[in-house]
Each structure stands twice: as structure tokens, then as C-alpha cells.
């Protein structure tokens, strides 16, 4: 089922008090900030230059966007291990250049079948995160194989060459990875009493290995990972079955069950039973454009679609950092997150009112709640359609991720957001496997019910996939032609990053790199409205105190917050492809 509520171009209305506050532009494009890249027929954007190079090589050799994504992911898991990898999961949105169809692939991790609803009751987030209980059954290897089977053009075996070359020949650890390792090591009581990097395999790989001097290997260190190379060789020869059965599956299960902190309960049977699910795309209209993304268990397409559907009722002006534009965006975020936290979970287990949440009349009602003052904590609405009686999830624990955007010469487009959850997942590296385990199960609600006993939609259940904010997105015109491919890492902030990239292009007429360079802002229905201060040479330059003061006058509690998005945006134009990468991380663009 394709969810496509019709809004057409939508009537633009304005809150009078907001219109009266329009002032001179507060933002200025920084000439030292990165500039967009243009190619003629194909492009790949990832969060790491080596991964981008792998995808670019595949495209140059005639591969499809699916081929390029496989090669890029195999490299990302090696060179950016804190964010994604074979021990994690991913979502893919695919536009087929031949048929024009949109397909989405759910490679989200699943709970072991022994999981109970009380899995995390009584545990702090950190205790659960750094344990075997947090590791879900990985989905990435199965997803890559199915994606290639459906849409690949090159032989499967050839896609492993870049990853194998780097794993065996070596690559330089990035400064970002080294800094993250040090930041986690600093959270331990001592070098010998470690919760973070408690696993000796991971500790030896990422640090100098000294029990008396806990320090990451410095950025620039030449890294080799022969164990990862062996895993790639198994996948290359045996396909995903070589991961989910046999020695690798046994090593994964053993790593979970023997966790030095709290053992988990994943079994080889759980691994063998994993499946990728092809789900209906969730599409919403925004000012005449079709915005398509991943439906539940992701909240991404629903929340992005709701934000856009609410914003469609307002004129955002011509300055993306003007106080009225920021205010409207934050209010749309409050309303979307209120619904997200109540209704969204794995649709194999709960009934989610997908169509109702994007219903035109319902979003008009939600937009009418927006005034000139910050509304404070928004209450969820009651969308049309069937849904299970549930209680809101109060906590949100999502964290690190990565993103890949690709357009190939055949007209295919791919948006893939991929993750192992928090930095370095649950901190355990599979012995002999060379990859880290995820901690995706901490995305579930720790409490199965509210105080009245009403169940929470995103509670733990056996074989269930946790709710996610990952928002891989493809935007198309009225004729079904791809206009924009976008998405980002960033935990629950992904929703805002993705929605902002879309309005920056559609409403403010920015190119992809300019859209990424605009400082971020948003509100996830929490106490504070976050605004990103300017980053010299990365974002636009502006006086952050101007919108801050204007928003505080409207009742916002403003927090100046550095935000590490990793947007990858490709715009399809009549003159070729225009791309932007996020230099808040190590973003890179490739193509020809």
C-alpha cells in the first residue's frame, strides 16, 4: 500500500503576528564554507571519503546505485566503525529508474526470541547500552544481499574489492574516530575497571593496548583489520548465509552471551531466522512535491511528512534563519514528535495510523494549534483510522548513524541510512569477525507500560524491531521524476535534519550544499529549542543572538547546541546532478 494523501500545492496561510515580525535577513552564506559539486550522470555521497571513493569506483565501472551502496557500506563499517557496520542494521528507499516504482527495505535489527517486555526494567540507559542485552540481531548483511539481488548490476564478488583492500592494506584512523574513543575511555572509573571498551578485542583494536595508559590510537594511525577481511571473504563466497549461520553466527551469539558486563540471550537460531522486509513506502505531498520515505518501524517518513504537512500552511519567508521560520519549524517538530512518541512502533506488532497521521484535514487541525508563542509540550492528536490504545514513550535514546545517497546513470536513486546505534554500538567487537555489535534494542521503551498499565507501542517483544528515527528520503516531482535524495545520521534529530534539508531546497531555493551549510534548529517536543551556533568554514555565518532573543521573546527556552548531522543530499536537475556533503563529519562527494 502506498500512502499518498493529496494536498496539491496547498493554500499558504500566515499567522498575522508572525508576519509582522519579518525583519532583515540574519544569515549570510560563508564564502569559506563548502560549495556544491556538479556531475553529469552519477553521484554518491557518504560520510567518509574512502567509502565515497568505493561507491564512485563501482559507478564508473557501470554499477548501479545498489552496487555502489553495497561497496560503500562495506567500507564504512571498516573506516567509520563508530556509526555503522555488519553488526548493525539499515533502511533503504529505492527509486527504480526503469519502472518509476519506490521500494523500501527494512533491514532493522530484531530482538532475540527470548526477550521479555521487562528486558530493561530497572536498568539505566548506560547499563543497558554497554551490555549484551542491547544487541539486536543484525540486519545489514541480509539487506545488502537482497538489495543487490533485486537491483544490482555487477557481480556480487566484485563489490568487496575496496573493503578487502583497505582491511588488509590499511587505512588511516580519522581524528573523529580517535576523539570518540578517547571520550568514551574517559568515562571509565579507571583503565583496568572499564565499562566502555570493556571488551578486550575492541580495547586492543582501538587503543594502544596499555592497561595503565588508556588512550586511543591517534588520528592518522595506520589501521589493519584482517578479521574484518576474513568476514568479507566469507560474505563474498557464501552470501549472507555465511554471516547468519556457521562460524560467524556462532561468534556473534557467543559475544552476546558472554558479555563482560551483562550477558544477553541472542542465539544462533535467532540469527538464522533473520529476514529483510520489503515495506510500502510512506509518501506525502509538500507544495506539489512527493516526499517518500521509510514507514514503521521507522518514524522518519511519518514525522518528516507531518512536519512538512503542517509547515505547508505557512509562508516561511525567504530567510532560513529568520526567527519566524525557526519558530514555525520548531512548532511543527513539537506536534510531529508528540504523535510519534504515542503511535509509532513495529507494525508487525502494533497498529499504527499511518494514513491518518498524514491526513490533510488532520494536519490542518494540527497546524491551527501553532501560534505566535511557543506552545510548550504538545499533546498528541487523534488522527483518523484504527490504532491500538497505547501510552506515550517518554524517553528517546537514539544516537549515532551514517547515511549514503546515490544516483546512477540508469536513473535509479537510493537513500540508505545505516547504523549500529550509539558510538561503537554496545562496545563489543566480535572475536575473529572484526566488526562491532549494535545496541539498537535500547531504542525500545525501557518501560513496557505507563503507570496506569497502558502498553507502550514501542515496548520490547520477542522478534520485534525497535522504533527508529532514520529518515532516508527521496523527493519526486508531479511526474514521478526524482528531484532530491536526502537523509542524515543524528539519532532522533535525524527527522529535523532531513525535513530542514527539504525546506531549504524547496522553500528557500538553496542548492544541496547550501542547504546542508545552514545551521540547524529544532524542537523534539522537549523543554528546549535547540539552535546550532555557526561553525567557521562549515556553516553559514550569522549572529546567533538575534534569533535566540526573538525566540525567547516568544516563550522558547533556547539552547545553543552543536549538532553533528551527516547529511548527504543529491539534487537532480536538467543540467546534471548537484551534490552536497556534510562537513560537520567527514562527508565526501564522488561521481562523473
3D architecture notes:
- The chain is of the alpha+beta class and 592 residues long.
- 31% of the residues lie in helices and 15% in strands.
- The chain contains 19 helices and 21 strands.
- The strands form 5 sheets. The chain has a 7-stranded antiparallel beta sheet. A 7-stranded antiparallel beta sheet has the order 8-5-4-12-11-3-21, with helices on one face.
- Helix 14 crosses helix 19.
- The chain is globular and about 60 Å long.
Q: What does the radius of gyration come to?
A: 22 Å
Number of separate helices? 19
Beta content comes to 15-25%
Largest sheet: 7 strands, antiparallel
The shape is globular
Instruction: Kindly report how far apart the N and C termini lie.
Output: 36 Å
* Overall pLDDT metric: 93
Percent helix, as a range, is 25-40%
Strand line-up across the major sheet? 2-20-19-14-13-10-9
Unreliable segments (pLDDT under 50, ≥5 consecutive)? 1-24
Structural class: alpha+beta
Number of strands: 21
